[in-house]
Amino acid sequence: MKKVYVNEEWCLGCHLCEYYCAFANSGITDMVKALKDKKINPRIQIEEGGDVCFAVSCRHCEEPLCVKGCITGAITIVDGVVSVDREKCVSCYTCILSCPYGAVMPSDEGAIQKCELCVKNAGGEPNCVKGCPNKAIVFEERG
Amino acid sequence: MNYVIIGNSTAGIGTVEGIRKHDKSGEIIIISNEKHHTYSRPLISYLLYGKTTEEKMKYRKDSFYEDNNAKLVFGNVLSIDDKKKTVNLENGESISYDKLLVGAGSKPFVPPMQGLESVKNKFTFMSLDDAKALEAIITSETRVLIIGAGLIGLKAAEGLSKRVASITVVDMATRVLPSILDEEGSKIVEEHLVKSNIKCILGTTTKELFEEKAILSNGDEINFDVLIVAVGVRPNTELVKDIGGQVNRGIQINTKCETSINDIYSAGDCTESYDITTGENKILAILPNAYMQGEVAGINMAGGNKEYTNAIPMNAMSILGLHMITAGSYDGEQIITKAENAYKKLVVRDGLLVGYIMIGEVNRAGIYTSLIRDKVQLDSVDFEVLKNKPQLIAFSKQVRMQKLGGVKNDN
Ligand SMILES: Cc1cc2nc3c(=O)[nH]c(=O)nc-3n(C[C@H](O)[C@H](O)[C@H](O)COP(=O)(O)OP(=O)(O)OC[C@H]3O[C@@H](n4cnc5c(N)ncnc54)[C@H](O)[C@@H]3O)c2cc1C
Question: Which residues of chain B are in CATH 3.30.390.30 domains?
Fold first, then answer.
């Protein structure tokens, strides 16, 4: 399955992936309107320190601990994509306790959020990857 | 192959999903003495609070049983006959199995209390029916007394907090949530409860109960309309114990979730797990554990081969807006950081992270959990960076490549 992979040596730490993610998930079609003067809460997040930086987002694990541990049944695998049913989620944060990548986080609307590979928004393909200027994240099949 | 599962909750559902990974056609019968579609037990407090509905708290979709070709039977299992390989129901029916899963969970423990029988409205807080019975009786005038300041007592308090006139929580222990928090953590939570108008009377027992009044060991008198007893739970081990299966506090299982009796497996709150952070067998009454044991049991029942070897105590708990995440055990070197609205303790022993407590600020806690679960040697990561906050940059580049770059781990 195609997933978002990180080429960390190419990452510039420009944070554009975070903005493209927030835009794709805003439901707003105009990027300026979606992002200007807003504090974004993206599902992909840059880690940086020293001369290293890279983006972290959901790995869509084959044996996802967030899915197995979800107390409500709100997190499920839909066609390989680890997906959240925000109506069912009660924000207990068992997924935050469970995810080894730190890739699940509270959303601004009450439920949790995580990368869903842009399958539920207008993007269709991960918008973070489209917006990355340096191929530091790619959407492809890897072993 | 014909599979029978006792219990239609997390362990049972995990078992169905485990079986179906390997066997798409074998007959599955789930027997439940709760007459409901599988629901999420922890959500009963959220139901009272209004954060979920009976529909949304279904643990799996309406079509779950159909999708998995599993039959749900409502009934109470009285005994197992491991010679004839049948389970016997209260209604006289007996159902035969090739492989059996006991996922019977636990029951509330109600200790003997002087005068308890004279209390008019008394409840435990374990099931959807408990929540519905409470729902039917409470009004904005109701005064609630909860005995027990553990997870279940406090979740009951939260669930009722916006619905009733007053809530008092009494516990013999001198602090709240003693099973998952340290003293400092308990103090933070207690202050938060008090701010939220939940009265806590700790280090105190109920001396005598009357129809609508309790006299406490400190002499206090508390008038109440509804009493909730939430002092603890006991695993349902009898079905296995009665036929000579190994039972300690919980049902004994091996890493494949087999009991000591042929073709009988067990999972969830009725079992004991091996806690890798202490090296002890103990009951880990948490939902993720129940699911993962059930899934492993199911895979093995269906002829697959899977072991569950890294159980740890862990809890994500929130109470009226205050989030806390805890894992592992707290015996070892303690590294404490405090900030305005956050408290964090990391516990290190023998070069490993063995436990942590995070209150207020819980982002990315799972990175710490993975260090415990995977027994990551702390000298292989930048622990100074991790002390600051959980982050993957603390791992070596090679490990990051495995985690994020799809590079296979050759070990
Ligand atoms: C109020 C509350 C809040 C909780 N919050 C959390 C939380 O936030 N996070 C967390 O991880 N865990 C939480 N838990 C614990 C969690 O609910 C359990 O760990 C989980 O439900 C265990 O699942 P199980 O399948 O092992 O057992 P159970 O959920 O107890 O299910 C066992 C089922 O078997 C049935 N049964 C038993 N004996 C028989 C029989 N003889 N015949 C037929 N049926 C039988 C029972 O009626 C029951 O339906 C909470 C529990 C409660 C009560």
Answer: 324-403
| Whether residue B411 has pLDDT greater than 60 | no
Pocket of ligand 1 (CB under 6 A): A 71, 92; B 6-12, 31-34, 41-42, 44-45, 76-77, 103-106, 125-126, 152, 155, 236, 268-269, 285-288, 290
Fold of the domain built from segment(s) B2-107+235-301: FAD/NAD(P)-binding domain (3.50.50)
Per-residue pLDDT reduced to its tens digit, A15-67:
999 999 999 999 899 999 999 999 999 999 999 998 999 999 999 999 999 99
* CA–CA dist A23, A20 (Å, integer): 5
Minimum Cα–Cα distance from B288: chain A residue = A69
Class of domain B324-403: alpha beta
Contact yes or no for B392 and A101 at CB 8 A = yes
pLDDT greater than 90 at residue A143: no
- Dihedral, CA of residue B393, residue B397, residue B402 and residue B405, to nearest 10: 80
pLDDT grade, residue B410 (50/70/90)? low
Task: Give the β-pairing of B143-147 and B226-229.
Answer: parallel
CATH class in words for A61-114: alpha beta
| Minimum distance, in Å, between the CA of residue A6 and any CA atom of chain B | 5
Domain boundaries for CATH 3.50.50.60 within chain B: 2-107+235-301, 116-231
Architecture per CATH, A1-57+121-143: 2-Layer Sandwich (3.30)
* B12's tokens: 């049972």
Mutation choice for B interface testing from A58, A91, A94 by most B CBs within 10 A: A94
List, for residues A14-23, the tens digit of each pLDDT value.
999 999 999 9
Rounded-to-integer distance, Cα B249 and Cα B273, Å? 11
Top-level CATH class of B116-231? alpha beta
Structural contact between residues B294 and B12, judged by C-beta atoms closer than 8 angstroms: yes
The answer to whether B333 and B49 are in contact (CB under 8 A) is no
